[in-house]
Amino acid sequence: MSQPLVLHDVASLRGQLAQWRRSGETVALVPTMGALHAGHVSLAALAAARARRVIVSIFVNPTQFAPNEDFAAYPRSFEADCARLAQAGVDAVFAPTPALMYPPGFATTISLTGPAQAGLEDRFRPTHFAGVATVVAKLLIQSMPDLAVFGEKDFQQLAVIRQVTRDLDLPVEIAGGPTLREADGLAMSSRNVYLSEEERASAPLLHRVLREAASAIEAGEPADEILGYGRERIAQGGFVIDYLEWRDALSLGEPVRERASRLLVAAKLGRTRLIDNVGVRAGGDA
Ligand code: PAF
């Protein structure tokens, strides 16, 4: 098991990439904010199945957190992350500093419409996706990978990144990796460490409600009633709900039963905000 190279600046990143490129090797990037769990490792495995070289970036991006959010408290575990990535056979870790990503005088932010304004995360985190899109565009331009892999757990984020990549003609394929779950269905997330023991026991309700609602929609039951009932159950389970919505899987706009769609949820349990989503099969596919 070899340790991944740890690169802290763009010149060394590009130097390493140039060496791989000269040998004709393909490269995949997995952007993360660290505090890695099995879900991230599965994204690295997906990247390794598609490209000869895998780079994982670890950068807790300040611009995607609002002032009232958990930037300072966000879990950081760089040494453990590198050990995990060594086991996963990752070739390099790119870990820039905030000063490198946002030097004094930095003045550019990507402005978004389309899936970034779907009325989901953006309603509750209005500045979030501009920060995500800007940092992801920078990471893609810094590394110019053939492929970049993102988790489907952040489903709206994935749609936004696909849109940005298309609109800016960035020559990279964007791949989504399925959400990894704990045995009781809770979606793996770096923020799950915030949950108290009692909250951890309640948290799988979100996925249960999503699954049951997806089955009911697939069975042709009225969506408004299903969503209303789902919201009630989530609130009764001790969550403060931000949204439970049913959307088209591609545009995140209004769904139709004839096309693949998605149920998406965000809710707070104590001080922890959890998000999750599941697919809803198109009528006729079931
Ligand atoms: O999903 C994340 O971890 C982050 O939003 C990302 C894509 C690494 C950008 O900071």
Plain-language structure description:
The protein has 286 residues and is an alpha/beta fold. The protein folds into two domains: 5-177, Rossmann fold (3-Layer(aba) Sandwich), CATH 3.40.50; 190-280, Pantoate-beta-alanine ligase, C-terminal domain (Pantoate--beta-alanine Ligase, Chain: A,domain 2, 2-Layer Sandwich). The protein has helices spanning 10-22, 38-50, 78-87, 98-101, 121-124, 128-143, 155-167, 197-202, 205-218, 223-236; strands spanning 5-7, 27-32, 53-58, 92-94, 147-151, 173-177, 240-248, 261-269, 272-280. The strands form two sheets. It has a six-stranded parallel sheet with strand order 1-4-3-2-5-6, sandwiched between helices. Strands 7-8-9 form a three-stranded antiparallel sheet, with helices on one face. It binds pantoate.
The number of helical segments is 10
CATH architecture of the largest domain: 3-Layer(aba) Sandwich
What is the level 1 CATH name of the largest domain?
Alpha Beta
Give the structural class.
alpha/beta
CATH topology of the largest domain: Rossmann fold
Strand order of the largest sheet: 1-4-3-2-5-6
Major β-sheet profile: 6 strands, parallel
Number of strands: 9
CATH superfamily of the largest domain, by name, is: HUPs
Q: Give the helices and strands as they follow along the chain.
A: EHEHEHEHHHEHEHHHEEE
- Provide the gyration radius in Å: 19 Å
User: Structurally, how many domains make up the residues?
Assistant: 2
